[in-house]
Write a structure and sequence with these properties.
binds zinc ion; about 270 residues; three-stranded antiparallel beta sheet; mainly alpha; Arc Repressor Mutant, subunit A
């Protein structure tokens, strides 16, 4: 039933020769356009023309995939069920409106016919021609509309039933889409939570690894530094620097005094000489 309406939609847009494509296109999966062309037994360009016309009305959608070896893109098509149904719905709506208008006219206005030529005129035109047929000159007769109106009302009922069906399908399809969206949202939410959890876990791991590292560092410090403090660096510094300086100063002073003494001695010696 759904496919019948989809076929009607394609028939309205592209023409009867393209109806068959509806049976080949899927409502769930995208189908390779070359496969469609092959199955329809038409060229790829003819196939694309049909699909482009349909996509102008949103009845089909496509995705493209790149051929890794050849480097070109191949298009894959699928029926957009909701858009197609809405297209069909608006078409049925239009037909219902037209039919209701006609029924109203038939019920409120008079029509005249020539039974021989099967020509029908409304009251105004019949009056202009003095109720005489333009073709054969016979007298026009008042038409009994009851049969026509009954037929029209039957058609109207059928259209209304179709409309009900299409509206029901639209409802189902929107529910389906909403469910799908909700499912995707939930999936995204789950993925987001998983990411967060992983991030937290990683952060924790980093912290613990830092702690253990610092612990190791501290342990190293505790082991190494005391050794350095007590034995090597400070004591050696003190021993090297300060005592040497002191020694050197004292020695300098001593040597100076010695020098002076020797000078004096020499002077004294000179005097004696
Ligand atoms: Zn006539």
């Amino acid at each position: 039933m759904l496919k019948k309406f989809l076929r009607d939609a394609v028939n309205l847009i592209v023409g009867k020769q393209a109806e068959e494509i509806v049976d080949l296109l899927d409502t769930n999966n995208h189908i390779n356009e070359f496969i469609l062309a092959k199955k329809l037994d038409i060229t790829i360009n003819q196939t694309r023309n049909i699909l482009y016309k349909m996509s102008d009305y949103g009845l089909v959608s496509s995705i493209r995939k790149k051929d890794k070896k050849k480097g070109w893109y191949t298009y894959f098509w699928k029926i957009e069920v909701l858009k197609s149904l809405e297209f069909v719905k608006s078409d049925i709506f239009k037909k219902i409106n037209q039919l209701e208008n006609q029924i109203q006219k038939r019920e409120t206005k008079r029509f005249y016919i020539c039974k021989r030529c099967n020509i029908e005129l409304n009251e105004e035109n019949a009056l202009i021609h003095n109720f005489i047929c333009r073709e054969c000159g016979d007298v026009l007769m008042l038409k009994d509309n009851t049969k026509v109106v009954r037929e029209m009302k039957k058609n109207l009922d059928k259209l209304k039933r179709d409309l009900d069906f299409v509206e029901e399908e639209i409802k189902k399809e929107t529910e389906k889409i909403e469910k799908k969206k909700l499912k995707e949202l939930k999936k995204e939410e789950r993925a987001r939570k998983r990411k967060l959890k992983m991030r937290r876990k990683r952060r924790k791991e980093k912290k613990t690894s830092k702690k253990t590292k610092t612990k190791i560092k501290k342990a190293k410090k505790k082991v190494k530094k005391p050794k350095i403090k007590k034995k090597k660096s400070p004591s050696s510094k003190k021993q090297r620097k300060k005592p040497r300086k002191k020694v050197s100063r004292k020695s300098r002073k001593k040597t100076l005094k010695k020098k002076v003494k020797t000078k004096r001695k020499s002077k004294k010696l000179k005097k004696y000489k």
